[in-house]
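F.,

This is the one I mentioned.
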């Protein structure tokens, strides 16, 4: 992440054309507002998030219950 923007990096190719490039996948933080603290278990959050896609990480503040406004996966 650079200046709050995610970048895609790939090996330089002479055939690369930015106008025809496509993004096949992306990473995103997903928030679950007003989720009961009983669900703030890593395995439970990963299970919930897996309904959307592949879970990469559970936010550290979520796991330590430091901020209880929402769970972030």
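My design for it:
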């Amino acid at each position: 992440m650079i200046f709050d923007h995610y970048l895609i990096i790939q090996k330089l190719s002479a055939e690369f054309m930015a106008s025809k490039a496509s993004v096949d996948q992306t990473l995103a933080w997903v928030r679950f507002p007003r989720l009961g603290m009983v669900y703030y278990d890593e395995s439970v959050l990963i299970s919930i998030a897996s309904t959307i896609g592949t879970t990469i990480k559970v936010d550290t503040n979520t796991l330590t219950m430091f901020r209880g406004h929402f769970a972030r996966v």
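Helices lie at 42-49, 60-63.

Talk soon.
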